[in-house]
Write a structure and sequence with these properties.
891 residues
Length: 891
């Protein structure tokens, strides 16, 4: 059974063996029966190391089932051997499914009391699985501990130490943390002790491991803890937190977080609401905030305030102000983000939102005005100082708080450092973007009378952030994100669109939708224009594509020699900043473009977005080429960071193709741009592998693979619309042909395969082709598979290769002509395929190509090698020509 090649056969045979176990001859002697039984266990043991994980899973669980049911008739030596093998070896299997099956099998085996004695000795060896990288394994071993908890002869802490349990409780995923809480409930919230004793046990847990203790009370009530004990525990925690003589900062933090978790659940109980409000009345909340030593502790206090007592938290206003305005670097600090969100919630609950938004808008207005002065931008009318500018209690608090934060004794209007002010404005922009993410706060923002003022300020700051990001490292994408998100939600509000549209139809509240759509299109056009300045709006004319000759020249330089040259040259920080800043900004913009088109809020800018994305891809290709030729220095670390963003850009670009091709009412308007972008994306992958190697190309291949059908459809969209030999230009007016680089590389790969097929001796350059372009070849193999599933798309995309052959004739690159013809006639379709008669566009190109090949074959100026290649191409095309073109012409 174990020698059968097909794993399904082995798996089915194993099922039969386990169902029929034990196989025996009733008339045989005991020695014969024992021998047969040993053979069956030997077979099971061999299947523990089967190549197929599914077989190993069944072997492990099946063996435990056999031991459970037939313990009495199995020799003790075999039992010990099998259980030891399972616990020592299978618990360390490379497959997480096998490790899970080990635990499930042991749990099942525990149902037989006769197995307990040996398992007492062996189970501690499974403790390492509690730190397994797989969530399913950690959940399974927690289930094992829960089973052991109910068996008197076992102690679960002998398998997993108490310290490890607490660490996992503090840090693991909620499903595991909840199971650990269930495991510890009898120890820290027992039902057979007084309320005071239970509270002391809980406090002991918090003191021992603050974060684990706090997490324990996130699930304690749902796992059966007493409501009365939990309510009393809140009182004890508050008393301890307000007199922290014997507590360190971590313990105070744990107490406050535990109190927040408890209040979150207790407030939903009607019997606890009034008691909680009384408990936190007076100045207790502010006192708790004062003892909170870090952001997480302060967030806990604000959460408690929003849960239980929004009417009595005026004393926390100043603290909320501090959290909201003293927040530079907010976009990179998740802990600070949680603090600010808690402050926002409290402000909204207390009815201070308008004051807060006014204060935030004033900060944006000030920084936007400084941007206009510093960078020579025309001041929008909305940003001009107003004599009747509103001020609020919140604004005064902000002035006072900013004086305190900066350590200045002068008036808050005093001119400050621009970088510092910009950092605060960026944090404010992040907050506005975050406020738009939740329904309640989004509605509050969109109803504000200051909306247009905030929008105008963000527009100016975003323009500066984009255009100056390559010069100033402190500039970030938060203002741009906030500006575009605000524009999108304003448009959705004005047009009556919602994120979840019933039956795919847009709702309309009766307002004029055209004006608001034009506004969003104008916002998009403004941002695109600003971003294009980073890499040159004329890049599409200069073209990042590569000619056949330049590609050949590139590959003549060995990677080894080029690496030495790169290492010997100095690295320029300004170059790193420019590339990194550009990639980050474009990634931000592309994400917004995709979101806007997804919500159908953009009407006139889809072609513009495609052209912009295409130009950006060409910019990246040009950058990679300059890096390859040592005209630009990029460190390996910087390349990795850039490619993280670039993968996102590639995904957004393919999503954009999907949206445009599926939503466009008139595909002919966007067909050319969609086809251009698809070519650029393939160029990027091919060029990346050529210039940086297969490792980086694999990253892009992984990103584009799920969207490959959309990319292939876009590739042929021009020919699908025209159904004639047209589409992307492959020849210039001067007569010098120019191809996308991916088509050139495909020709090189096909030429190599042809030479190998003809057993032609390869030179060093040819031998490296398949190795250098292995990822690209895998990509093209997938493209071929997709094309064979749809004749209409195959016709449109196949025409690209025949068009390349026509251009190859103009270049007198006869090897390329043969390669493209071979790819079409051997890999896509053969002359025997009856589908050729349905391929209108490809047959149209064949009418251009075949006569030209016949004419050139007879041209005496062509070399013998060139003539042979043309004859090879003619031999491949002739059966198709005679069957589908020539006969039609005669008729």
């Amino acid at each position: 059974m174990q020698k059968v090649a097909n794993s399904n056969v082995r798996q089915n045979a194993l099922h039969l063996l386990l169902d029929m176990f034990p196989l025996e001859d009733p008339d045989a002697t005991k020695e014969v029966k024992d021998t047969l039984l040993n053979k069956q266990f030997f077979l099971l043991e061999r299947l523990f190391i089967d190549d197929c994980p599914d077989v190993r899973v069944i072997a492990v669980e099946g063996s435990c089932r056999v031991l459970h049911l037939f313990w009495e008739i199995i020799p003790s030596s075999i039992i010990t051997k099998i259980i030891t093998k399972i616990i020592d070896d299978m618990s360390c299997d490379t497959s997480c499914e096998v490790r899970v099956s080990t635990l499930h099998g042991i749990i099942y085996l525990l149902g037989n009391p006769q197995a307990h004695e040996i398992l007492k000795v062996l189970l501690p060896r499974l403790g390492h699985l509690f730190l397994d990288c797989s969530l399913s394994v950690r959940m399974a071993i927690t289930d094992l501990l829960l089973v052991l908890k109910n068996l008197r002869s076992f102690q679960f802490n002998k398998v997993v130490s108490f310290d490890v349990l607490l660490t996992s409780l503090a840090n693991d995923q909620p499903p595991v943390a909840q199971k650990i809480t269930r495991l510890l409930i009898p120890s820290y919230c027992p039902s057979n002790v007084t309320c005071e004793e239970a509270c002391n046990l809980c406090v002991t847990l918090i003191k021992r491991s603050p974060m684990a203790g706090a997490r324990f009370f996130e699930f304690a009530l749902s796992e059966g803890a007493s409501l009365k004990v939990q309510m009393e525990l809140v009182r004890v925690i508050i008393h301890l937190a307000l007199s922290p003589n014997d507590l360190n900062a971590d313990q105070v933090e744990g107490l406050l977080l535990a109190a927040s978790n408890l209040c979150h659940h207790l407030i939903s109980e009607d019997s606890c609401k009034a008691a909680l409000k009384d408990l936190f009345s007076g100045g207790k909340l502010k006192s708790l905030f004062s003892v909170a030593a870090n952001g997480r502790a302060q967030t806990s206090v604000l959460s408690i305030a929003s849960f239980v007592s929004p009417d009595n938290v005026a004393s926390l206003l100043e603290e909320c102000v501090g959290l909201i305005i003293n927040c530079s670097g907010l976009a990179e600090n998740e802990e600070r983000q949680a603090e600010v969100r808690s402050a926002h919630k409290l402000v909204l609950d207390c009815g201070w939102f308008d004051d807060m938004f006014l204060a935030l808008t004033n900060i944006l207005q000030k920084v936007a005005s400084r941007c206009c002065v510093k960078f020579g931008i025309e001041m929008p009318k909305q940003l001009l100082p107003s004599v009747k500018q509103k001020k609020s209690k919140f604004s005064v608090k902000i002035c006072q708080k900013r004086k305190y934060v900066r350590g200045r004794k002068s008036d808050c209007a005093r001119t400050s450092n621009f970088e510092e002010d910009y950092a605060i404005a960026a944090a404010v922009a992040w907050q506005i973007k975050d406020l738009l993410a939740a329904v309640d706060t989004r509605n509050a923002v969109l109803k504000s009378q200051l909306l247009q003022l905030a929008f105008s300020a963000l527009k100016v700051i975003s323009e500066v952030s984009i255009e100056q990001c390559v010069k100033c490292e402190y500039l970030d994408a938060s203002p741009l994100l906030a500006y575009m998100s605000l524009a999108l939600h304003m448009t959705l509000k004005n047009t009556g669109l919602t994120s979840t549209e019933k039956n795919g139809h847009r709702k309309n509240n009766g307002s004029d939708t055209s004006s608001s759509k034009v506004e969003l299109d104008q916002v998009l056009e403004h941002v695109i224009e600003c971003t294009e300045k980073l890499f040159g709006s004329n890049l599409a004319d200069e073209s990042g594509r590569l000619h056949s000759k330049s590609m050949l020249d590139d590959e003549k330089m060995t990677r080894k020699s080029k690496q030495k040259r790169r290492e010997s040259q100095s690295e320029t920080n300004s170059t790193q900043n420019k590339i990194s800043g550009t990639v980050k900004m474009v990634a931000t913009l592309l994400r917004f473009i995709v979101d806007a088109i997804t919500t159908k809020a953009v009407s006139h800018s889809q072609q513009r977005c495609l052209r912009f994305t295409s130009a950006y891809m060409q910019y990246i290709i040009s950058t990679l080429r300059e890096h390859f030729h040592d005209k630009m220095q990029l460190r390996e670390k910087d390349l990795k960071e850039i490619f993280i963003c670039l993968k996102s850009c590639l995904t957004y670009a393919t999503k954009l193709l999907n949206l445009v091709l599926s939503n466009s009412s008139d595909l002919s308007l966007a067909a050319t741009e969609a086809s251009n972008l698809a070519n650029d994306l393939l160029d990027l992958i091919a060029s990346t592998e050529s210039y940086l190697g297969s490792g980086y190309a694999t990253q892009l291949f992984t990103a584009v693979k799920p969207w490959l059908p959309d990319l292939v459809l876009a590739l042929g969209s021009g020919h699908i619309q025209t159904k004639s030999p047209s589409g992307r230009d492959y020849s210039c007016p001067s007569g010098h042909a120019k191809h996308p680089s991916w088509v050139i590389i495909l020709g090189k790969v096909e030429n190599f395969e042809l030479r190998k097929f003809n057993q032609v001796e390869e030179d060093e350059e040819s031998e490296s082709i398949l190795y250098v372009f292995s990822v690209f070849k895998k990509l093209m193999d997938l493209v071929v598979q997709l094309l064979k599933g749809n004749l209409k798309i195959l016709d449109a995309v196949g025409a690209i290769f025949l068009a390349g052959s026509v251009a190859g004739l103009e270049l007198e690159d006869y090897g390329f002509v043969l390669a493209m013809v071979r790819f079409v006639c051997v890999k896509l379709l053969s002359h025997d395929d009856g589908e050729w008669k349905q391929l209108e566009v490809m047959l149209g190109y064949l009418q251009l190509l075949y006569p030209e090949i016949e004419r050139d074959v007879k041209d005496p100026r062509i070399s013998e090698d060139g003539r042979q290649k043309l004859e090879g191409a003619r031999a491949l095309l002739e059966p198709i020509w005679m069957t589908y073109v020539n006969d039609s012409a005669v008729k």
